[in-house]
Each structure stands twice: as C-alpha cells, then as structure tokens.
Amino acid sequence: MTALLETRGVWQRFGGLVANSDVSISVGRGEIVGLIGPNGAGKSTLFNLIAGVLPPTQGSIWFDGEDVTKLPAAERCQRGVGRTFQVVKSFETMTVIDNVIVGALVRNTVMREARRKAHEVLEFTGLAARADVLASDLVPAEKRRLEVARALATEPKLLLLDEVLTGLTPTEAQTGVALVRKVRETGITVLMVEHVMEIVMPLVDRAIVLDLGKVLVEGKPADVVRDPKVISAYLGDRHAVGA
Amino acid sequence: MDKNFAARRRRDLIIAAVLAVIAALTPLFVKDVVVQNILILTLMYAGLSQSWNILSGYCGQISLGHALYFGLGAYTTELLFTKFGVLPWFGMLAGGVVSALIAMGLGYPFFRLRGHYFVIATIVIAEIGLLLFHNWEWAGAAMGITIPIRGDSWLKFQFARSKLPYFYFALLLACVAWFVTWWLEDSKWGYWWRAVKDNPDAAESLGVDVFNSKMGAAAVSAFLVAVGGSFYAQFVSYIDPESVMGFQFSLLMALPAVLGGIGTLWGPVLGAAILIPLTELTRFKFGGSGSGVDLIVYGTLIVLISLALPRGLMSLFSRPKKTGATR
Prior knowledge:
The complex is a heterodimer.
Chain A: E1 5-14, E2 17-27, E3 32-36, H1 43-51, E4 58-63, E5 66-67, H2 73-79, E6 81-83, H3 96-104, H4 111-125, H5 140-153, E7 158-162, H6 170-185, E8 189-193, H7 197-200, E9 206-211, E10 214-219, H8 221-226, H9 228-235, H10 237-240
Parallel strand pairs in A: 3-8, 3-9, 6-7, 7-8
Antiparallel strand pairs in A: 1-2, 1-4, 4-5, 9-10
Helix pairs in contact in A: 3-4, 3-5, 4-5
Chain B: H1 3-25, H2 33-58, H3 67-84, H4 88-110, H5 116-135, E1 145-146, H6 164-185, H7 188-198, H8 200-205, H9 210-236, E2 238-239, H10 241-245, H11 247-260, H12 267-286, H13 293-308
Antiparallel strand pairs in B: 1-2
C-alpha cells in the first residue's frame, strides 16, 4: 500500500533563503502525523507546498499515487487535500453556514445537497448553533473551528491542520483535540503543524521534526521528545547535554 | 431543514413580483412625459446597477469601466441596424455577446490584478474604448450615429409618439437583471463569487476556480449592461461616444449599488429608486445653467450615506444579529 502523501526531495528557496531543503516525508493512510519544529523551521512552507499554494523549486509531491507537483491548490482540493490556515481566512461577510457551503460545493453540485452536507459538518464540528451568524462575529476559537469545518466539507482524504490548536485556552484546546480525534475516526488522514508539544504529542501517531528547513528526526512521539537533537533544536545545545 | 432560508428566498421573489406589478401599473396614473422619462431611466439604471453588482458587488471586482460595455451594446446594435439593416432585437443580443466576449478577453490579463490596480485598469480601458470610438470613422467617429426614424414599430423597437414601450422594456430589463441575480445568488457561482470577494486564497484552498469565477461574473455582468446600452440607444435614437460610453455611465451604474448596499440583492434597486429621480429632478430644476447644482446635491447624498451607513441603505433592513460568544 502506497503512502497517501509523499514529498520527494522537495526544495523551496525564496531568493537566498532556503526554507525547505531536500525534504522527503510520507504520510500513510489513516495516520495522524504531527509536523513540529521551532519557529522558522519551514513547516508552513512545506504545508503550502503540499496544499499547492506555490510549486516547489525542486522535487515532487505525490498524493494518492499521483504526481500533483504542478497542480494548483483548487485542483488538489478536488483530489482530496483539505487545509486550514494558520492565520484564519474566513469569508467574513458570509454566514457560518455559507462559509461551509463553499467547501461542500466541491463534491455536491446541487445546492440542496451542498447545504445538507454543510449542516452535517456544522453538527460534527459543534458549530450548528452558530450557523446563521456572520463569520466576522465569531470568537477566535470558533473561527479556527470554522476553518476545520470548511475543509471537512470538501470531504478530504488528507486534512492539513495549520496550528489549529495554537492560541486557544486549555479548555478550547481540549475540545480541539477531541475534534481532531473524531476526524480521524471517520477515516481521514491528518497532517498537523503544531507548536504546543504537550498538546500535540499525545494526539499523533508519529512526529516529524523540521529544523532549519530539513527533517531532523522522525518517529514515535515519545522517542522524538527525548531525542537530544530535538531538545537542542528547541532549547539550545546546553540543555541537550544532560539528556 | 433550513426553512428560514427557503422562506427568505420565496419572500424576496414575492416582493419583487409585487413591485413589478405596481411598477407596471404606474403608467395608468402617471401621464406626465417628464415623470415617465424619469421612471424609465430609474428602471434602466436599476437594471444596469444590478448587473454591475454581479461583478463588482458579489464577486468583488470593482469596475469603474462598465461604460465600455454599455457603449458597446449601443454601438453594436446601431451599427448593425444602420449599416446592415439588422433588427435591434438581434443587435441587442449581438451587443451582449460582443460585450461578454470583450469582458472575458480583458479579464484574462486584468483579473490577475488585485484591488485598486484592477479598478484603475477598468477606468483606463473604458477611456481607451471611448477614444477609439471618437476616432473610428466608419462608426461615425465623434459625430455619432443618428438612428433613422421610420415610424412606431415593435419590430424596429422605436416609438416616437409614446414612451410606454420603452417604459415596459426598461421594467423588463430591471426584472431580468434582478431575477438573474436572485437565481445566481443561490447557485455554485453565487457562493464562489462571494468567497472570491472575501478571500481568494481561502477560496482556492476549497476548490474554487478563482479565475474562472471572475470570468463568469464579468461575462454575465457585461452581457446585461450591453443589453441596457442597446435599449438606451433605441430610447434616445442618437448615439455618439460621449453619450453612451462616457465615464458618467460607469459612475451611474456603480453609485446606486453602493448607495443601496453593494453585493446585496436589493441594494441596486433601492439605490436607483432614490438616486436617479433625485439626479434627474435636480438636473431638471437646476441644470441647464451649467451650475452643476445637481451634481452637488447627489455628491452630498453619497457623502452622507457613506458616513452614516458605510454598508449602504440595505444595512438598515438586515436584522441586527446580536452575537458575542456562546461559551
């Protein structure tokens, strides 16, 4: 069985800055994989490459057995890549349900069905009570949830979550974690970028640590957090010595 | 599920039907030609502004160059009529198709521009169109085209004795533009357009074909505006570049929608119903002397509205939804 997502030797340069160098990762079907690393490690760049926001300078991206390197974001979405944005990008002048309908239209051409699908997703994500509220009136935690809802409405095979749990109160974060688990139970593969280690580690099956644009370590969360290289990347060499 | 939504759509449709019937009956009571003239223009601008609203209000691509499509509709119809004897009804369709194609041709390079740059491009292109027609001998250049009057006829869509046929056509145009908007509002295109307006990056990530959404909106919008231009040419029976492609038309299409509520179903109708009679009446009362009092009056109105109700008059009607956090 091939992996659902694979990046093969992906490079991304912005002028002189190398944001990703020779990144090869793979995500298997049904997995929850955490992509972690300190600020500036190249996580968001890799995310954008996978989502198709920009093409990699070099290397290729494979999704569901196909080379999607050259496909634009909209077509990757049609093939089953759903994503959220680190800085939320709601459709502010539209209601919550209308935001989700936009996503649902990818697989439902009949409006009535798109609307039904959108309602289902709002139930699933716990936003049903807010369906008719303008997206601009949501509180930050709800906006994050709306990002997830919108992406789920596209019925993705792979869901890319970009720091959906960051900046939430502990209670909100716990609800978020529960939602991610629920998403996985429906058979959707999840790749999540996250900053907060203690939240993400119990959640994921596998963690990939990026540092300075390269894959530093990958493996089981418990092993990764004890890895001296990871500790040094996050906290500096001094702390790694005793580990 | 969603009874409210369906009920609101149905209510809009019923209100529109009632308004259309009331409008259709007004000529029974209004015999004054000057007032009829104002009614015709009001209905025409309601239709034009509604069409402008599709591209600029729903899809968020603000155009201040729609005079180009208005003029193209007028010129296509009259050139076909005077040079080749093609009936205005076919000319009207041809004008719509020509405008839609040109709108897409222009969209191809310009939809890559965002925000203000796009607006500037639309103004510049419309001015270029105006200059071209000023210098195009075959199309009458600055002298324009006089439409030969051959007696009242539905076939040739010209009426010297009564304004009523024009009135009913203007009403039809307004109704069609409204209905097209109403219908598209709850379609894939309607949702795509609003998503593109609010956040093109997010739209793209949700499978929206951003570029083609804009192209589609431009084509529909330009087609309907061109039909309005054809109508106007028949109505005034004389066209020259300034009188059908001048910048003021671009403004008069944008202002009712902005005043009434940009990107709303009823905004253009409401805006036109207030703005056009006001413009025409002030021009009637104060104009002619070249004092520009008419412009001052509605300039003031625009300033007041944008200060008090930046989202347009329709925001008065949207139920205030008190939100805040639920948890």
